[in-house]
Structures are given as structure tokens and as C-alpha cells.
Amino acid sequence: MDKLGLGTCLTLLLLNIFIKVCHNTEISLTVDISAGRQECFFETLPAKTNVEIDYQVIDGGDLDIDVLVSGPDNRVYHLDQRKTENTVKFESTQEGDYRICFDNTFSRFSNKLVFFEIYVEDGKDDDDDEEDDKKLTFEGENVQGQLDMTIEEFSGILERSKKNLERSIQVQTLIKIHEAKDRNTQEANFFRVNFFSLFQLALMISVGLVQVIVIRSLFTYQQPVSGGSLKART
């Protein structure tokens, strides 16, 4: 095979691998839901696609939110009420725009800071991937046969590697969000403790001053003024 033919084959191989490994998509956002408001987000999905949605309320109020996931035919796939976090998994039934709504209408004063992540899979079963990985042991007498992989097999290995990396990034992101939520909770508790401590200190000082004034007034002696002394002075 000449150099031109080899270069063409390598180009086609890389292009095919790139197309194969780009099936999975992942979207993550952090949004501020105002009090008494509802915010909806739309994602276009093909039919028969596995979708996973992770959400967490990071800051605001009691760290709770209402969540609604519905399809293009207004079918409700999932509904959560007053939850802090959850993982929603479903399979799309038809192609179209799917809606994810975060409802904070039950709150009158507190805004909610919500992180959510949408992970769209290619629909391939992970069990099939594990079976394919078991075949590639590179041990025994069939080493040469295992090395003679086709483009599809090599693309599948890269696709599974990409999926595992995306899962690792997803887990790390969720850990960071948990840490941010815990930090916000600690800062809110710290502010409350300091505020009530200062309030109690001011109240104790005020009560102490009132007690001192009352006690001093009880022991203050006022000498009565007689009528004779008034005549002598005049």
C-alpha cells in the first residue's frame, strides 16, 4: 500500500472514530430560581434514548425545589416535590423537545440556586460493553487474533473509554456541588449563630443596665423638707 492510500485509510479511521465517540452529550448548568418563579429548560432528544438528569439545590431557603420532566406530548416522565437533590432516569419515547422545569412558586422570599446536569447516552447497554472488554484480554494463544481488530471494534473501545471518563467527570462535579452546598449551609449557620449571639449579648447588657438603675433607685434616700425650714429660709 502506498503512502497516499495509507494516509487516506488513517484519515477515514480517525473520522469514523470521532463520529463514534461523539454520541454521548452532557450539559451542566447552575441557575438562580427567583422566589415565586418557575424556570424551564428544553433539550431536543431522539426517540429511544437513555437520559439521566442530576440536580441539587445548592443555596437558598430550606434547600428544596419542585421538579417536572415532561415530553413533547406533555407526558410527565418525572415529578418531584420539595426535594433537595435527586437523579432522574428515563427513556425518551419519541423525538422532540423535552422540558425540565424547576418550580419555586411555593417560596415567597427565598431564591434557590440549583445545579443540574443532563447526560444523554447512546442507548447501548453497558453489559454488552463488559462482554466485549472480556474478550480483549491479550493473553493466551489468541493474541494475534485479538490484535486484528476492525474499525468498529476499535471505535467501540474508544467510545467506552470516553463514556467512563465522562462518568468520572460527572461524579467529580457532583462531589464539588455537594461541597459547595455544605459550605453554603455552614456559612448560613455561622451567620445565624453570630446574629443570635450578638442579639442575646445586647439583650443581656440591656437587662443588666435596667437592673442596676432599678436597684439604685431603691436605695436612693431623699430627705423630706419641713415647713419650719421653709419659713427660716424666707
UniProtKB/TrEMBL annotation:
The chain crosses the membrane at residues 195-215. Residues 1-24 form the signal peptide. Pfam families: EMP24_GP25L. Its main location: membrane. GO terms for cellular component: endomembrane system; membrane. It is a single-pass membrane protein; Single-pass type I membrane protein. The keyword Signal applies. Keywords: Membrane, Signal, Transmembrane, Transmembrane helix. Belongs to the EMP24/GP25L family. This is Transmembrane emp24 domain-containing protein 5-like. It comes from Biomphalaria glabrata (Bloodfluke planorb).
